[in-house]
């Protein structure tokens, strides 16, 4: 397991943003790239590889990776539905959205469907309170959700996964 | 007519891009500022009365003047774009739609503070925004506003965008600095303050996105003119992100002489409450500030009109007032349950506690469990006093203000809505099937009618 040359160039570009000897600052950006490149989660060998790239101890990577919610410490589905459940979203019906997804997909919070397609990950405030209820799907937000929009989204993703 | 200083150009097609921005007066502030001395810029910001827009409202000019300047040690400006306080989504709007305003503010502020490597620390979940910012930075650089020897001044400056990894606590400035150094987001003990030992132990200023954007109009119009806009010590304008049970959620630039009532009901702003529902309560400055019932929202305890500014919102202290905070304005209508909402916030703070201080780590989890019991019909009367006692013991006893931020919402909910908590305890079954409603917090508009 190794980054492509293109990613390695990106890694070097990021490290160059910090003063000499402060390359550890690149850790979180590198973990994002690693998670994207190596299957959506951070397995121990992946974290060790990042440690090696930054010349730091593996434990320095583990303690950071486990602190931040965006890093998955176990395998996740192809699509991770991160539905905000905090106050402002709750006021606009996020509970119903989460319950609907649980029923529709037959999974609980934090679980993945048996076909490996969907993980439901309730999230805390994502900064989209005015466009609630909402979820994060990969890089983007899906906002102003309704039950119908969630149904359509899940169907679209299922279709996309087949192609 | 409301004065707009930040969003005045937001409606212009293509304003995200350099050419359009420049054609509409963009980068004139940088031109002007780079002809001034750094100290003159700090002086303008002081004169403007600008107060930090990240939540605490600390005077920006004063903060800048505290920056230590030891010989031969680089200094840094860090832009706080972590924006994770529930109810707050204003910085996102600025960065997504008018990124050059922020870049301009960053160049001027970097020059004033002597930062040649400036970092924007943006919450990791805003994953598409770094692309927008980096594009704007590249455009600015291509046009000579960034890089080496800017406008022949001898000043070099680069701006870098750094994504976080998902942690509310990284909005706290010392946790942010730790995170930027590639560590867990554990707030530091102060002193030393960042102004003396911040990023990589170098003197550092951390400012909110909106604060740094406001430097642009301050330079364009002059600090004194900026200071004339507003009311008392609330100068300039403020972005408010409005959400919850209102007809028109979104980001608004307001003037500080706008009444809270007009903000909620005018069509220019929130447009009232959907479905003819009555107003129950409001959290006007992000989830950390005290919730106030409708009867204390439009008028202060003294019966004066309440306005959307620092002083008026906090009139009456925590007993009957609240705070402007970050401007995350959350409205609750009559169908909302204060116990449930408080429980949700308690879960948030428990989830986001970094775990360094026992009152915060243990107290937030304990409060959540008790609130959950009360919400689900398993609470006891003594639980309400216990909650009060726990929040009181967290407040002021922790390394960073997250402890206070977790305690205040619980305290305010009990202070103003104790009867709703008691009703849950006394009616464990009924409370599972219906909401308590509005009770005596009658919507003041209805009383008048
Ligand atoms: C728990 C916690 C979270 C915070 N989150 C943010 C945030 O997301 N954005 C922000 O600008 N300031 C946040 N702050 C305030 C910062 O610590 C700091 O005061 C601010 O960035 C200073 O900038 P300003 O003076 O321009 O407001 C937070 C503070 C605490 C205690
Ligand atoms: S108050 Fe809470 S979040 Fe802040 S340092 Fe202590 S444990 Fe961490």
TrEMBL record, chain A:
Gene3D superfamilies: Glutaredoxin (3.40.30.10), NADH-quinone oxidoreductase subunit E (1.10.10.1590). Binds 1 [2Fe-2S] cluster. Keywords: 2Fe-2S, Iron, Iron-sulfur, Metal-binding, NAD, Translocase. Pfam families: 2Fe-2S_thioredx (PF01257). InterPro entries: NuoE-like, NuoE_dom, NuoE_N, Thioredoxin-like_sf. Coiled coil: none annotated. GO terms for cellular component: catalytic complex; membrane protein complex; organelle envelope; organelle membrane. GO terms for biological process: inorganic cation transmembrane transport. The keyword Zinc does not apply. The keyword NAD applies. [2Fe-2S] cluster binds at residues 84, 89, 125, 129. Its cofactor is [2Fe-2S] cluster. Belongs to the complex I 24 kDa subunit family. This is NAD(P)H-dependent oxidoreductase subunit E.
UniProtKB/TrEMBL annotation, chain B:
It catalyses: a quinone + NADH + 5 H(+)(in) = a quinol + NAD(+) + 4 H(+)(out). GO terms for molecular function: 4 iron, 4 sulfur cluster binding; FMN binding; metal ion binding; NAD binding; NADH dehydrogenase (ubiquinone) activity; oxidoreductase activity; quinone binding. It comes from the Bacteria. Its EC number is 7.1.1.-. Its cofactor is FMN; [4Fe-4S] cluster. Keywords: 4Fe-4S, Flavoprotein, FMN, Iron, Iron-sulfur, Metal-binding, NAD, Oxidoreductase, Quinone, Translocase. InterPro entries: NADH-UbQ_OxRdtase_51kDa_CS (IPR001949), NADH-UbQ_OxRdtase_suF (IPR011537), Nuo51_FMN-bd (IPR011538), Nuo51_FMN-bd_sf (IPR037225), Nuop51_4Fe4S-bd (IPR019575), Nuop51_4Fe4S-bd_sf (IPR037207). It holds the Pfam family NADH_4Fe-4S. Residues 339-384 form the NADH-ubiquinone oxidoreductase 51kDa subunit iron-sulphur binding domain. It is an enzyme of class 7 (translocase). Belongs to the complex I 51 kDa subunit family. NDH-1 shuttles electrons from NADH, via FMN and iron-sulfur (Fe-S) centers, to quinones in the respiratory chain. NCBIfam families: nuoF_fam (TIGR01959), PRK13596.1 (NF010120). This is NADH-quinone oxidoreductase subunit F.
